Structures are given as C-alpha cells and as structure tokens.
C-alpha cells in the first residue's frame, strides 16, 4: 500500500503542474516558484498522454487552467493536494481530452468535482503527502484517442534506476 501511495504521490507531483501554482484561488502563498517552461522540453503530440487532465476555474467568463491531474478511472482522478486544499470543489472544472488550452478541439469532456479526499497527513508548507483524489460528478467516456487512464504500478513494484519519467504541464 505504501508503494502504491508513493507511486500515486509521484504521479500527482509530476502531473500537477506546479509551475502554474501561482494562481491564488486558495489564499495560500505559492509553494513553488518554478519558471513556466520546461528547459529543453518538447510539445507532446496531440493526445499522446490521454490520462492528462486540466483543473480549471472560471474567472471573468474564461476557463483558467491552474493545475494538472491524471485519470485513474472514469470516475476518479489524482492530483496534488495543494491544487485543491481549501478550495470549494464547486469552483473546479475538470477537462479531459484537451491538447491546447487556448483552442477548443472538439475532444474535450467537462466534469465537476463532487468529492475531494486529501491525504490525511498532508502538510501545506512542506508539501509532505501532497496528494489528493477527486471524484467526478459523472463518468468520463474513455476512448482510444483522447481520454484514457494512467497505468499505476502494482503493489510491491520497485522502479529500477533506469525508469523513464515524463514531466507534463500545460
């Protein structure tokens, strides 16, 4: 179980887009001050990572991305706890099937959040146990092109020193 939680924490950390955590929707000082770009990074192919989700809020009639998440199954997602800590879930919209935030491509699916489960030992200032699960208001429709689940290692899995890790941000 500890390996699974550690793996999910890594997934949440990697996909939560801390570089854009400066958005102040939860009244906390930003925990990260990373630049907005990955040095030497390349743009993913459209829907290359179908489990990647966008957490968004509406401000001045515009959707605003503020964190990333990963799709566990059609009803549940994992993200970093700092993305949803002390935030009214009704203000959060989950977008699946997105590739370019500024363009509507027709593959997007929008859901609201009905439940937030933050790790019981989450510690805001230290980012300890920075993981949360979110339940969606309706199942996402999985498909072979733009919306799919992330692979989670089985219990007891130990990564070798040569495991590839992808860092994705919108």
UniProtKB/TrEMBL annotation:
It comes from Allacma fusca. GO terms for cellular component: extracellular region. It is found in: Secreted. Its main location: secreted. The keyword Disulfide bond applies. Transmembrane segments: none annotated. GO terms for biological process: proteolysis. Keywords: Disulfide bond, Secreted, Signal. This is Peptidase S1 domain-containing protein. Residues 38-170 form the Peptidase S1 domain. One of its GO terms (molecular function) is serine-type endopeptidase activity. Residues 1-16 form the signal peptide. The keyword DNA-binding does not apply.
């Amino acid at each position: 179980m500890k390996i699974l939680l550690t793996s999910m924490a890594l997934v949440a950390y990697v996909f939560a887009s801390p570089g854009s955590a400066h958005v102040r929707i939860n009244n906390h000082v930003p925990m990260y001050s990373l630049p907005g770009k990955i040095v030497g990074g390349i743009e993913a192919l459209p829907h290359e990572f179908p489990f990647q989700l966008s957490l968004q809020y509406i401000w001045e009639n515009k959707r605003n991305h503020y964190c990333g998440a990963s799709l566990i199954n059609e009803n549940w997602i994992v993200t970093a706890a700092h993305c949803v800590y002390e935030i009214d879930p009704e203000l959060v919209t989950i977008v699946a099937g997105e590739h370019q935030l500024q363009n509507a491509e027709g593959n997007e699916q929008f859901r609201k959040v009905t439940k937030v489960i933050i790790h019981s030992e989450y510690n805001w200032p230290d980012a300890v146990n920075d993981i949360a699960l979110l339940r969606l208001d309706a199942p996402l429709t999985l498909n072979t092109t733009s919306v799919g689940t992330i692979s989670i290692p089985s219990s007891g899995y130990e990564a070798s020193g040569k495991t590839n890790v992808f860092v994705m941000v919108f």
